[in-house]
Amino acid sequence: MLILEEAAVRSVLTPERCMEGMRKVLRDLAEGKCAMPDRLICRMPNTAMLGFMPAYVGDYYGAKVIAAYAPNMGTEYPSHIGYVMLFESVHSTVVAMVEAGSITEIRTGCVSAIATDLLARKDASHLGIIGCGAQARSHFAAISRIRNIRQVSVYDLRREAAERFAEEVRGTGIPVTIADSVAEAVRDADIICTLTPAKEAYLTREMVKPGAHINAVGTFTPTTREVDSDLVAASRLYGDYAASTRTESGEYLIPLQEGKIQESHLLGDLGGLLTGKTEGRRSDSDITLFDALGLAVEDVESAKMVYLAVQ
Ligand SMILES: NC(=O)c1ccc[n+]([C@@H]2O[C@H](COP(=O)([O-])OP(=O)(O)OC[C@H]3O[C@@H](n4cnc5c(N)ncnc54)[C@H](O)[C@@H]3O)[C@@H](O)[C@H]2O)c1
Fold this sequence. Notes:
The protein is an alpha/beta fold. It is 36% helix and 23% strand. The protein contains eleven helices and 14 strands. It has helices at 6-12, 15-30, 100-119, 134-146, 159-170, 182-186, 229-233, 242-248, 250-257, 270-274, 296-310; strands at residues 2-4, 40-43, 49-56, 60-68, 80-88, 94-99, 126-130, 151-155, 176-178, 191-194, 213-216, 236-239, 266-269, 288-291. Helix 4 (134-146) links the parallel strand 7 and strand 8. It is globular, with a radius of gyration of 18 Å. Nicotinamide-adenine-dinucleotide binds at residues 68, 73, 79-80, 104, 108, 130-135, 155-158, 161, 195-198, 202, 217-218, 220, 292-294.
């Protein structure tokens, strides 16, 4: 059995390769070629959210066990810590343990980039990012490969995090501004990424311009969200996997409970868009909203890609 650490993950999962793998596995999921039992997310007494995320992707299967630990924000420790345990499907032996913090970081940005490619306007060029941690880096890296990004605006509660990330963006030659508020960061943005562990909605209807595309990524439980109900109601809403969105997503469930949307407001998911079964953007003025919970098939497929590349 191989133990594959972060360096191996980063050397194999370039944004291009990872996006290709994620497109394939999301299509396979939509076509019934994968299995993804419900995941278990439990709050530990130290406030860590411990996730157990199993999936079967055909030739391999396994589970990611990961702790999301917000108190590590701004420290030398990562905020996502764990491994994917990877089994081969013929004899069910364990072939690898693959570092999962880096997989989570990279695959999440790549899946949002796929959603952006499917839903954002073709001429989208201004990227607004809220929350300047690990996800900001992977989202910028992947989204700047699928749209011609000419301006980036960023906001973080911690100014030093915004400054550090802005410096990295500047290094690529793309102009970047550090905003003093969420509203300022997203005012002119064509693509908005919400990448924070905030519990309450902070992105509201009046902040977002017509035609924008939003990737809502930071929250993944029924009671937490980043996008407010009126903005969800004004958007064309898609999940990463609709069956999970219906049971786990605060972005969907809270406005549903408030009576601001009906069940039919959830139009579908990435698999439906990739296989052509779900209709995407209808007009240049639509606001599109992609709500990411994070899927175990993405993690197992990523671990498999790393294992196959290095074995
Ligand atoms: N949906 C998914 O698939 C998925 C995958 C990975 C991470 N996540 C979630 O995304 C979020 C970000 O992950 P990360 O790895 O980048 O974390 P991180 O700790 O590296 O960065 C988070 C950043 O957000 C900032 N922040 C916190 N609250 C804020 C607020 N209200 N407004 C503005 N900025 C704020 C912090 O200062 C920090 O810089 C976490 O909640 C994480 O659990 C979701």
